[in-house]
């Protein structure tokens, strides 16, 4: 079973600032993931050509099931509001997470995570800090019928606000108890591995710097395995790809 998590930066390349679906398709195809969790995914956004980037990625891995769930309606950094569970029916600019699987999905779960209150300091350059509002977040989970049995696999992108992301991760674990084990969480958690493991009590499947992509120095992207996952990790990669400021994290279980 190959699992991958990838914050795609709405498909943008750091080299030329462009969003080209074919470039994203090639990057995702190379991961050869059986189950893929994506963060910072655009749909109907002018900045990414109005493309459905979750559908592009799902096609690239040959997924039989995929779903995109918006966290916000509008454009982050500009004008946006929290999405609701009915937003998928509207042709509005949206931004959120997606999950794609080469195996059938038996059940989906969506759990919304509110933004941190007020504004929080964010570094935006050398010696420069601005107060920024946080964005609401969302957890997307699927019960998947794999050749090794039924698994719950989820993805999320947690807040960058220290402390608040820790609380969100605890809420994620509680929400996932509604679905059967074994459970696997893929995502950009904006937390170091040690803290993510402590917050959940789950096994951190892989270590490897993923951010920033040209010269990774920290790991924000994780694959977490709950205590009922009895599979060994036999391969971990963080491949160089032509899109995003994150590198994907790929984990193969025996």
UniProtKB/TrEMBL annotation:
Q: Any idea which UniProt keywords this protein has?
A: Endonuclease, Hydrolase, Nuclease
Q: Name one Pfam family in it.
A: Exo_endo_phos
Its Gene Ontology molecular function terms? Answer: endonuclease activity
Domain (Endonuclease/exonuclease/phosphatase) ranges: 4-246
Would you tell me the Gene Ontology cellular component terms?
membrane
Q: Which residues form the signal peptide?
A: none
Q: Which domain of life is it from?
A: Bacteria
Q: Name one GO biological process term.
A: GPI anchor biosynthetic process
Q: What is this protein called?
A: Endonuclease/exonuclease/phosphatase
Q: What species is this protein from?
A: Virgisporangium aliadipatigenens
């Amino acid at each position: 079973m190959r699992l991958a998590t990838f914050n795609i930066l709405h498909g943008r390349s750091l080299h030329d600032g462009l969003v080209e679906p074919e470039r994203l398709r090639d990057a995702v195809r190379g991961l050869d993931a059986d189950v893929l969790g994506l963060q910072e995914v655009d749909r109907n956004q002018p900045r990414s050509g109005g493309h459905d980037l979750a559908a592009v990625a799902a096609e690239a891995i040959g997924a039989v099931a995929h779903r995109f769930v918006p966290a916000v309606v509008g454009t982050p950094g500009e004008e946006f509001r929290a999405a609701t569970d009915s937003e998928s029916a509207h042709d509005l600019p949206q931004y959120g997470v997606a999950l794609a699987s080469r195996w059938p999905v038996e059940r989906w779960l969506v759990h919304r995570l509110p933004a941190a209150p007020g504004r929080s300091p964010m570094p935006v350059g050398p010696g420069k800090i601005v107060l920024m509002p946080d964005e609401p977040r969302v957890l997307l989970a699927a019960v998947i019928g794999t050749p090794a049995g039924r698994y719950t696999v989820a993805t999320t992108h947690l807040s960058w606000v220290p402390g608040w992301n820790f609380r969100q991760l605890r809420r994620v674990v509680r929400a996932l108890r509604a679905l059967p084990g074994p459970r696997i969480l893929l995502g950009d958690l904006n937390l170091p591995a040690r803290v993510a493991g402590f917050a959940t009590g789950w096994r951190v499947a892989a270590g490897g710097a993923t951010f920033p992509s040209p010269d990774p120095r920290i790991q924000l992207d994780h694959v977490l395995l709950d205590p009922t996952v009895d599979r060994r990790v036999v391969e971990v990669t963080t491949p160089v790809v032509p899109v995003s400021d994150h590198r994907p994290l790929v984990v193969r279980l025996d």
